[in-house]
Amino acid sequence: MNNAAIGVFDSGVGGLTCVKELIKLLPNENIVYLGDTARVPYGSKSRETIMSYARQDIEFLKQHNVKMILVACGTVSSVLPAMDIKSDISISGVVEPAVKAACSATKNNRIGVIATSATIKSGIYGKAIRSINPNIKVVGKACPMFVPLVENGYTAPDCVPARYIAQEYLEIMKKEDVDTLILGCTHYPHLTELISDIMGEGVTLVSSGAELAKYALNSLSYSDDTAEREERESLELYCTDSVELFSENVERFLGNNINAQISKCSLKL
Amino acid sequence: MNNAAIGVFDSGVGGLTCVKELIKLLPNENIVYLGDTARVPYGSKSRETIMSYARQDIEFLKQHNVKMILVACGTVSSVLPAMDIKSDISISGVVEPAVKAACSATKNNRIGVIATSATIKSGIYGKAIRSINPNIKVVGKACPMFVPLVENGYTAPDCVPARYIAQEYLEIMKKEDVDTLILGCTHYPHLTELISDIMGEGVTLVSSGAELAKYALNSLSYSDDTAEREERESLELYCTDSVELFSENVERFLGNNINAQISKCSLKL
């Protein structure tokens, strides 16, 4: 048993899709979330800058005595192996859980990955999938407009600009006949309905944030590190820009009956 | 005569539209430009965070011994008066030059302003315009999708998503019958053709970055602070994220026959 909280971070609000799953799957675990809203987005920035920000995010969560750190940011997850972090507690990104789920789901051995420019450039999904099954063909596509579309509410399947851009991005996925598509950025689940509609019923969508939450459940159970309490005691959400701006998004991602404590924190801005 | 360089900064690459004008108008002036690409964008962030970043940007340019600082960022310009900066050298934003140009241009006393959320929230354009002529009606509209559209190359007048979103944003401007529209964010001139097409021929578009460059020309001439040389000696461009990512944009904004020195610098990241 381990009553310390689970630490989660993202460049901004996208990682709250992972928190939403954690709340469902692990209703008695305390959670500390950090969104680096003063420097969001990470996905269009350089590898070096992303790593430097991620180190600060991890340090912040460590200071909150968490028992594990979930990197609910596709972009940071893609540079995580190269960061070579020494840590007493486990630090897990979205890549491995998403890749495992996708490799189990695919029937025709053709997996697509959509993510930020930085993630696609890293090539990490291809490497991870081929290490499980070298016969799987991996098709990657950077979708830099998806985050602004989601953040500005252009998500409905009949939304003209969202549909046009999504069709443009997903054309290669249809052409390459993928039967499984990894949503490698934690913002993308907001576009699930639209993406499903374009890709068609036969294609399985894998939400990287949700898979990471499932991984946390399995990992804590396996190592007997679950909390010894009936109900969650605290859900602490930290942001690096204003609490007011962040709160609007928290409501949009988690609903408005969430009992969370939202605070501003300073990394090294 | 004053041979020190002109300092210019922006949250990212948008301010290069002002540099482009400076190069044309003041071909013998040295220029030092800073784009805070590691923390871009500013326009969706809080007033407090924007001010804190802007102070660091200004400090950086001061260390380069510039003779004047041009704030080629609509968002920072909108908080500049509230920052109450004590400085030996002049620090000028885009608001005043753009407002003067718009007030001269309007015939029906109806001016529109499009800009980032932070700029529109500040209400600064309304205040500045009414201080010149209280009879002018000012219509403001935040256009948060315009920066990602420009940065991802969705700018052509026949581009479906750009046109759809622009029509949505500009509807109020047509309804309110503005005859002059201030492009209050330095990214927006890339959408000039599209915006003109939607607004119609009778509407004057005022580019805030270009007006700021004209202001610099007038101000240096007036105070006899122009440089004493035939041709520019240096165009130094600094960014806070990788030079590689920045260079691509420099070419897109300034063309590829620009003789510029591009370096990465560190603020307090």
Automatic annotation (TrEMBL), chains A, B:
Metabolic or biological pathway, per its Swiss-Prot or TrEMBL entry: Cell wall biogenesis; peptidoglycan biosynthesis
Enzyme Commission designation: 5.1.1.3
Catalytic reactions on record: L-glutamate = D-glutamate
Keywords associated with the record: Cell shape, Cell wall biogenesis/degradation, Isomerase, Peptidoglycan synthesis
InterPro entries: Asp/Glu/hydantoin_racemase, Asp/Glu_race, Asp/Glu_racemase_AS_2, Glu_race
Positions bound to substrate: 10-11, 42-43, 186-187
GO molecular function, one term: glutamate racemase activity
PANTHER family: GLUTAMATE RACEMASE (PTHR21198)
Protein's UniProt name: Glutamate racemase
Species of the source: Hominimerdicola aceti
